[in-house]
Amino acid sequence: xxxxxxxxxxxxxxxxxxxxxxxxxxxxxxxxxxxxxxxxxxxxxxxxxxxxxxxxxxxxxxxxxxxxxxxxxxxxxxxxxxxxxxxxxxxxxxxxxxxxxxxxxxxxxxxxxxxxxxxxxxxxxxxxxxxxxxxxxxxxxxxxxxxxxxxxxxxxxxxxxxxxxxxxxxxxxxxxxxxxxxxxxxxxxxxxxxxxxxxxxxxxxxxxxxxxxxxxxxxxxxxxxxxxxxxxxxxxxxxxxxxxxxxxxxxxxxxxxxxxxxxxxxxxxxxxxxxxxxxxxxxxxxxxxxxxxxxxxxxxxxxxxxxxxxxxxxxxxxxxxxxxxxxxxxxxxxxxxxxxxxxxxxxxxxxxxxxxxxxxxxxxxxxxxxxxxxxxxxxxxxxxxxxxxxxxxxxxxxxxxxxxxxxxxxxxxxxxxxxxxxxxxxxxxxxxxxxxxxxxxx
Length: 442
Hints:
This protein has helices at 2-11, 21-28, 33-40, 44-51, 69-82, 95-102, 120-127, 141-146, 152-158, 178-189, 206-214, 237-249, 264-271, 291-299, 341-351, 368-377, 394-402, 424-433, and strands spanning 62-64, 86-89, 110-114, 133-139, 164-169, 196-200, 221-225, 254-257, 282-284, 309-311, 331-333, 357-359, 383-385, 413-415, 439-441. By secondary structure, it is of the alpha/beta class. It is flat, with a radius of gyration of 25 Å. Residues 13-60 form the F-box domain. It holds the Pfam family F-box. InterPro entries: F-box-like_dom_sf, F-box_dom, LRR_dom_sf.
């Protein structure tokens, strides 16, 4: 019976750092100064949270899930004390709930809210005059069909401070709802101060996006999810020339084209103008399963001298796709690819001294002997993601950190989610050896 009670008691312990920041501070408010002092010695992160003042709260994104009106007063009272400037609605909420909360915070700078009712755009316009970042989610075709008279584009047009806009929904088909989507487009086009645009739709027309981008000269980041479903695949080549003109005229720093799948002649048209994108810093090509197209893009990476971040998650990667003239990357994501150790060696010969992050999660062709050599290949590597790699075991950690002849530089942070061959005892030994300078996320 005592053993059962002891096991039950142990299970009640959990990491305070897993709690949302808001909940953490609510708990801390009930502690005495002595108790806070004891807690501050547990972790540097906890110590920083305890020492934070009201100004620190301005950088906190408060996530709320109001479902009843009587919750609104409590939420408003709590967040007023923290002078909240960033709010995220986690679930669908009614009109009255949204209104009661939004009108209490006229100084909101960032807002993530569902399009759960017809009045949501009007509420944003009336109560969020200073918004710089807006994320609208739960946009559905059925909603657009029912609410065609609502001119959401006018609301966007009047948000003069808006810099970042993200629209997320299941489907936005301009063939079925031309009036509505054109109004949205007009509103975005009028926003010459936008620096970041993000679209999460299953169906998008490429000319629709191109026209928006061509009227936003300050645009630095463009993200188009589900690019493989863009109806631009069936469009004439002239639309792709429009894309090229836009690429040449504007100094983009981040481009996300997940699932890129375009006809070869269209892609070549875009690639021919890549050398004009001298300022491009981040490129996301994840889920590109067309090997020939991916090879064409990577062959032209040398035309992007400022490129630092490359995401190739679930791409049709081959070991010979990385070339000696590639830019010196800081971050390289190769999650769930068929990369082999010979490909890793090739990458190391190109960017050994520059690479800070390497993502090899679920790369099943990487063996234990290969992983042991990684720190000696990348001398500047700070973080490595090896989640799902069964090859990461106790022997690897022992060889990296506990052996006298270990490499001089090893990753300070290892993400090892789903790695079942390392145990907590080995992690404890390594952390003691390195005086808690190693962070392992399992």
